[in-house]
Amino acid sequence: MTTNNSNCRPISTYPIPAPIQSKLNKAGFLTTGSISNLRPSELSSSAEISVEDAADVLDLVGKSMGMFLNTKTAFAILQEEHLHHPVITLSRNIDRMLSGGVPMSKVTEISGIAGVGKTQLCLQLCVTVQMPEECGGVQGQAIFIDTEGSFNVSRLEDMSQACVEHCRNTMNLPFDVWNLESIRDNIFVFRCKEVTDLLSCVMVLKEFLKSHCQVKLIVIDSLAFHFRHDLENTALRSRVLHKIAAELSRLAVDFKIAVVVTNQMTTKFDSKGQGRLTPALGTSWGHAPTFRLILDWDPSRSFRWATLIKSSSLPSGSAPYQVTKDGIRDVFFEKETTPPVVNVEDGIPGISFNSVF
Asked: Domain RecA family profile, which positions (predicted)?
C-alpha cells in the first residue's frame, strides 16, 4: 500500500527562500499538487520568478513527491522481507544466530583479525547463494569485489565441490542441475587496487545489477584495506567512505540483495593504557551496517566464534564454527563452552587481547 497525500503538502513547508515563497503564494501555488505538472518556464511566468528558481522549486518538490509515492506500511515491508530468503552459511549455529542466514536488503559487516576466516566466510557465501532452492539456497549469482588479492580460486573449488556433493546426497539432484562449472560462471570478480577503483566500482554496480538481475550477493573484501593505506586526508576519507556506505545501502534495498563487507581490526587504548581490538574505520562507519559480526579465535585455538554485536532486529549472541577443507562448518561440543565477551566503550564494540592471543 502506498500513500497518495503528497499532492496536498503545503508549499510553505519546503525550505524555499522567503521571497520566492511569497511570490508562489501570491500566484496561488499553495500545495505541491498545484505545481507538480508545470514546466519551469510555466511556473516562472505565472509566479514571476526566474526560470532557474522555478527549476529549483520543481526539483525540490519532485524529489519529495517521489519519496512519498514510494512510502510503504510497516506490514508491507515485513511481508517483503519474508519473501526474500537469506543466504545460508552452512553453519547452522551461525544461521540460527542470524535468524536463517545473511539477510537480503541489508548491509552486513564481518570484522576480525587476520586469519580468523573472514575471506573464507565470504567465499562460502558466494557458493551457497547459488544453491538450488530445494537445498535452502536462493539460486542467485554473486559479485566479489577484491581489494587485497584475497580471491582464491582453488579454495573456492574445494568449497564448491563439497557443497555440490552435499546437495546431490541430500536431494538427489542430477549432475546438470548444479555443478562446479556453473558455480564458477556465476561469480563476477572485480579487482580494485586502490581506493579510486573501489569507489568507481561501487558507483557502477547499479547499472551492472540492472543487466544481471540474478545477482543476490555483493561481497567487498575488504572495505578497510585501501582506506587505511591510500587516504591520509581525514575529511576526504570520511566523504568517500560515506559515499560508498550510502550507495551500498541503496543497492541492498533497491535490488533486494545481501551486501557483505569485511573490515579489519584496530587497537584502541583507554585512559589506563589498556588495549583492546575493535573494528576499523571509526564510529561513523559503524552506523552504516545493519548487522555487525566479529569473528574471533577461541582461546583453545581449536575453533572460532562468530559474535553478533549489532542488529536492529536480533539479540546479540555468539556461534561457534570451524573452517575446514569443505568450508565453513559447525562445531559440536561434549560439554558447555563459554562464548567470548564483546565489550562496548564509548559506543565502540571491542574484544580484549586475551580472547585472541
From this structure: 83-265
**Average pLDDT of the chain?**
85
C-alpha cell at 269: 587504548
> Are the beta carbons of 55 and 32 closer than 8 angstroms?
no
CA 293 to chain centre: 12
For residue 295, count other CB atoms closer than 10 A to its CB. 24
Q: Is the pTM of this model over 0.85?
A: no
Give the pairing of strands 275-279 and 348-352: antiparallel
pLDDT for res 357: 34
What does each C-alpha distance from 152 to 147, 290, 347 come to in angstroms? 13, 28, 35
d(CA 267, CA 274): 10
Question: Across-strand partners of 291?
Answer: 108
Dihedral, CA atoms, 96, 248, 120, 150, nearest 10 degrees? 180
Q: Which residues contact 22 (CB under 8 A, 6 or more apart)?
A: none
- The lowest-confidence range among 227-236, 247-256, 323-332 is 227-236
Sign of the torsion angle spanned by Cα atoms 194, 195, 196, 200: positive
Q: Is the peptide bond before 222 cis (omega within 30 degrees of 0)?
A: yes
CA distances from 123 to 7, 142, 144, 155 (A): 48, 10, 9, 8
Amino acid at position 226, single letter: H
- ∠141-205-203 over CA atoms, to 5°? 160
Count of beta carbons in the 10 Å neighbourhood of residue 306: 26
Largest CA distance in the chain: 81
Domains, the chain, ranges and CATH? 6-69 (1.10.150), 83-355 (3.40.50.300)
**What residues contact 221, with CB distance under 8 A and at least 6 apart?**
118, 119, 122, 144, 145, 146, 147, 148, 150, 151, 261, 262
User: What is the β-pairing status of strands 215-221 and 141-146?
Assistant: parallel
Q: For residues 150 and 172, what is the distance between their CA atoms, to the nearest angstrom?
A: 33
- Are 3 and 71 a contacting pair, CB within 8 Å? yes
